[in-house]
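Here is one record:
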Amino acid sequence: MSSTVYTRSSRPARPRSSLSRRLITGVGVFTVTALVVGTAGTAHLAATLNTVKRADTGTALTPRTSSMETENYLLVGSDSRAGADPSSPDYGSMGDEAQAPGRRSDTIMVLRFNPKNGEAAILSIPRDLWVPIHGTGKSNRINSAYTKGNAVLIDTVEQDLGIPINHFIDVDFDGFKNLVDALGGVTIFFDLPTRDKNTGLRVTQPGCVTLSGIDALRYVRSRHFQQEINGHWREDKSSDFGRMSRQQDFIRKAASKAFEKVAANPLAVPQLLKATLSAVHPDTSLDLQSMADRLSTLGRADIVTYTLPAKPDHISGAGDILRMDPPDALPLLAFFGGKLPPSPPSTTTPSTTAKAVSPPSAAATPSGAPPTSAPIGVVPDETARCG
């Protein structure tokens, strides 16, 4: 099968500088959780933590054998419409439980944290990845495992990708919106008018745009991301890959905003704590206070992000799906599974119609930390500074 050609940003992509990489300060809701829990007062924290809704994972999680062993957190963005408010401005584009019944994992990520050196990395898993679903004897899109329960998704990731999962955190729609609003919005640079008719995203004026919780959700969920170029709307053909690249960029900016907000106004912590903990549903074994202590260095870490390499395919009766690309995927899976990191990626600057950039292959002598994968699809211009 030939390589798929993806549309990158309307502007030529620029190589990331070491400075911009150092500005990667966290991993969104997860990192914000660690931050605000770590800075909240003890009495207020104890009372608030008791209100956290926990996720049932059964016996699926893999316990660590040592406190210094690498931790893997499975982070899932819930696509459930249960409890959707008809008066909400995004109700028309998101629908309700009757229109879209059941649970779906709109976003699946694995965060790998090494307590020995404080390094962290994220692997985004395409939701349309075609894999055997644990306990069913059948294959399907990996996000269908979530509809059968958290434990089935955990077991499927461990079984098919070889990544042990130590903890699980579910992030829901309303919680995500509340968190972004508590931050005062998150600012993204748009170089062109942008829209997605499916999610309701619409940016009419290019420049720095501060997204509210509702608009942020429309942005990070966008799979039909379009830009107006020379009077014509052109869609980012990378679909789920582009969406994951934009999600990774957004959660870095959200985490950075949270660190700035707490540093400038410690009194904002209680409000952020309430919004954050309404967004996350951790497994019953995860001690959020201990997690905050362990991950206290994440805000200063150079977080590297990857997208699991996959190629498009079509299955009769199932439609368009993605199949894992083993040559490029196996080194990444080995790293997230507890083995050595992959080698540095190519430094070639992609053109405006570059082919998909695959994650790097394994090296005979790997570096001490994994490098950042080049993003796929239309992503914000990293050289643009807002605010």
Notes: The CA atoms of residues 335 and 341 lie 5 Å apart. Residues 1-27, 342-371 have pLDDT under 50 and may be disordered.
